[in-house]
Amino acid sequence: MKILVTGAAGFIASHVADAYVNAGHDVVILDDLSRGSRRNLNPKSRFYQCDIRDREGIEKIFLLERPEIINHHAAQMDVRRGVREPLFDAQVNILGSLNLIEAAVAQGAKRFIYAATAGAGYGEPKQMPVPEGYPINPITPYGISKHTIEHYLFTFRFLYGLEYVVLRYGNVYGPRQSSQGEAGVFAIFSEQMLAGIQPVIYGDGKKIRDYVYISDVVAANIAALERGSNEIFNIGSGVETADFEVFQIVRHLLGEQVEPKYVARRPGEIDNICLDISKAKSLLQWEPRVNLSEGASMTVAYFKQVAARKDTSAVHARP
Ligand SMILES: NC(=O)c1ccc[n+]([C@@H]2O[C@H](COP(=O)([O-])OP(=O)(O)OC[C@H]3O[C@@H](n4cnc5c(N)ncnc54)[C@H](O)[C@@H]3O)[C@@H](O)[C@H]2O)c1
Question: Looking at residues 202-230, what average pLDDT do you find?
Fold first, then answer.
């Protein structure tokens, strides 16, 4: 199948594009390289450097390539930038995504797979684990913009028959992650410890998150090619992990003795989130296979390798 993957110069979608290429699909990548790196681009894919806000550019690419499936990961995904610049956040995450959805409909694409967010969408949940039906109460512009596209997909399905699958990720981690993003604590702690910088924990270290390893997220994107039509899925581990536990795991794997520096929490951060993943298990026939200690070992080994190359620009390089 011909699949257009957006954001595949970045962390998650570069792994998804690799898996699609390895499965024999014809992969087209669209990314503006605002955050991702050329080094992450799969050499067997065709790459278009384009901003998803560029409607004409998007239309041209769709006319030329006519993808059957769109896998949409490109986003303004810096939560704090969204707080500072809500208009920019909406322009990329809402209007940019709409450009893609409209082009998909115009060119008769079959399916639209959308990378959404669980942590930034549910707000501060009163119930854990949180199921997909839990009320959406974002406390940041990023949470609003990412969720809004779920409504458009639902509506466009009714209006034009475009099939969709929404994957609401927990905190994804693994090789190629940037320390600048929504959920990069493994990357942040690893980079800081390897550089001899005292790691910073925002808050008291007890905030709970749901970590899911990159290969499990990739498996969900593969399952979504065939299953889960017109459904929304939480994609996480269903396991509660505190910030301080992540710190301890990384510290242990790097053989460091350092203590964290605790600083005030940042606006827009929730206390606790852990996802109910039973729907993905039954309808997508997907479940996470990599536990936190295995995933942490592979992730920290990657950042060690990058640091050993002493090439800071290689943080996003293909392993
Ligand atoms: N990392 C996580 O834990 C997490 C959690 C929930 C949801 N998500 C979602 O998954 C997706 C990918 O996240 P990631 O962690 O791989 O981020 P990333 O920053 O590594 O990748 C995003 C990619 O999108 C590209 N991009 C940004 N703005 C663009 C634009 N206007 N036009 C074209 N390309 C643009 C960037 O250059 C980058 O390569 C995002 O949609 C994000 O909201 C991520």
Answer: 97
Nearest CA to ligand 1 atom 43: 77
Cα dihedral 216/165/116/281 (nearest 10): -40
Among 158, 50, 139, 63, residue whose Cα is nearest residue 96? 50
**Active centre residues (catalytic):** 142
Atom of ligand 1 nearest to the CA of 116: 7
- Nearest atom in ligand 1 to 316's CA: 20
Q: What number is the average pLDDT over the span 119-147?
A: 93
> Ligand 1 pocket, 77 CB below 6 A?
yes
Question: For 137-168, what is each residue's pLDDT tens digit?
Answer: 999 999 999 999 999 999 999 999 999 999 99
Rounded distance between C-alpha atoms, residue 84 and residue 89, angstroms: 9
- Closest C-alpha among 142, 141, 246, 269 to residue 199: 246
